[in-house]
Design brief:
The chain contains four helices and no strands. By secondary structure, it is an all-alpha fold. The mean pLDDT is about 85.
Length: about 110
């Protein structure tokens, strides 16, 4: 994405928060560690001279795992930021969680 046309003042006011939920961070890190393990497995397959079709299948699985981790991170971020800004009560929090779970499901279908 070309950000050269974004003014410095806008850029300064547009800072992203970090994930503060320990459970969400742990989940995301575990997803990334699994993908890392899959990548190491692909490297071993290439070194061993495995068929390209088998390697391609594993590469597709890693891409899907990374896409899934990205969607999960995005939804966790949205839930965290919307919850902080809207300060919903328990009922609204449950509704927000349900809507964001639907968003995650819908985004998962894009891949």
């Amino acid at each position: 994405m070309d950000t050269s046309d974004i003014t410095p003042a806008f850029r300064a006011g547009c800072t992203m928060s970090q994930l503060t939920d320990d459970k969400a961070r742990t989940d995301l890190l575990n997803r990334l560690k699994r993908a890392e393990g899959q990548l190491r497995g692909i490297q071993r397959m290439i070194e061993a001279g495995d068929p390209c079709l088998d390697i391609a299948g594993q590469m597709a699985a890693v891409r899907k795992a990374l896409d899934s981790a990205y969607v999960r991170m995005t939804v966790c971020f949205m839930q965290q930021e919307l919850g902080a800004r809207l300060a919903p009560d328990a009922k609204r929090e449950a509704e927000l969680t349900a809507v964001l779970e639907d968003v995650q499901t819908l985004l998962g279908k894009v891949r």
